Amino acid sequence: STRHNIGAVVVDELANRTSSTLKRHKRALAEVAETKLDGHQVVLAKPLSYMNESGGPVKALAAFYKIPLEQIIVLHDELDIPLESIRIKLGGGDNGHNGLKSIRSAFNSGDWYRIRLGIGRPPGQQDPSDFVLKPFSSSEAVSVATLRDNGADAVAKLIESGLQVAQSAFNS
Predict the structure, then answer these.
(1) Smaller CB count within 10 Å for the chain: N or C?
(2) Please, which pLDDT band fits residue 109 given cuts at 50, 70 and 90?
């Protein structure tokens, strides 16, 4: 329930919307659900490793399900955009995010889709690594619910309509 796990919260919402149950995968350190999202076959996944080691499970699942890099969507927390905001892009650097760094290393590439889920900057002089590991406050509950729902909508829009349409809808 920390800021660093907002991507997993969105995956749980997608599983809920598709009436799917995430189950432990037999060959990767992850929970997965094979399902349909708006008529498209998808594999929802949450690595069970530490965030900094998520590349291994993501790579193993991509190999198991024969998912090409250009069809992978990574949902992750983003300090550099305000809480509730979403940015969708293809490729890019890791911007100091160790989970992205691990995935980049596992694939030897950064050419996958990213849905960047805004968690905002830490207040005052708080260390960003401490900030991302803190739960959202109770006063942020409505914002987190909005981010969760919009994050799930962004995944569906990206799959259904492509990058440009999804960016136009969510990158504000």
Answers:
(1) C
(2) very high
